[in-house]
TrEMBL record:
Role summary: Manganese-dependent repressor that controls a regulon of oxidative stress resistance and iron-storage proteins. May act as a hydrogen peroxide and organic hydroperoxide sensor.
Name of the protein: Transcriptional repressor
UniProt keywords, alphabetically: Cytoplasm, DNA-binding, Manganese, Metal-binding, Repressor, Transcription, Transcription regulation, Zinc
Binding note for cofactor: Binds 1 zinc ion per subunit.
One GO biological process term: regulation of secondary metabolite biosynthetic process
Gene Ontology cellular component list: cytoplasm
Swiss-Prot/TrEMBL cofactor(s): Zn(2+)
Binding residues for Zn(2+): 95, 98, 135, 138
Organism, scientific name: Paenibacillus donghaensis
GO molecular function: DNA-binding transcription factor activity; transcription cis-regulatory region binding; zinc ion binding
Length: 145
């Protein structure tokens, strides 16, 4: 188990949130899953361990993590929300075929924020960027048809 999970759970405790085994499992799964899972995927992955857990439980806990600033909800298009436990500055590359989302970091995008602030006088709080394309797997499948 990564120190990131431990740190996140300590953070939660300070806000007075009780760390239930389910919450622990949801957060751990999110931090280890690099595929930005949907609530359904999280539920399906954890259901064997927590037979009494419902999709609603997963949603409610995700909402709580979001309010605590530990998880981001990604809403792209009309597909169900995906969740990302990486709240550092990063951007997303999204496959138009299978919907897979990969993280991508690029430091000079900070310059874009600074430039925007200078030219508009806004205080910039963040930047959300999505790049669209076809992932390697889908690209291979496509060329074989």
């Amino acid at each position: 188990m990564g120190s990131g999970v431990q740190h996140a759970l300590e953070q939660l405790k300070t806000t007075g949130v009780r760390i239930t085994p389910q919450r622990h499992a949801i957060l751990t799964y999110l931090m280890e899953a690099m595929n930005h899972p949907t609530a359904d995927e999280i539920y399906r992955a954890l259901e064997p361990k927590f037979p009494s857990m419902s999709v609603a439980t997963v949603y409610n806990n995700l909402k709580m993590f979001i309010e605590a600033g530990m998880v981001r909800e990604l809403t792209y298009g009309d597909t169900s929300s995906r969740f990302d436990a990486n709240v550092s500055d990063h951007y997303h590359v999204i496959c138009e075929v299978c919907g897979k989302i990969e993280d991508f970091s690029y430091s000079s995008l900070h310059e874009v924020e600074e430039r925007a602030a200078q030219s508009t006088g806004f205080t910039i709080h963040g930047l959300r960027m999505e790049l669209y394309g076809v992932c390697g797997c889908c690209g291979k499948n496509d060329s074989q048809q």
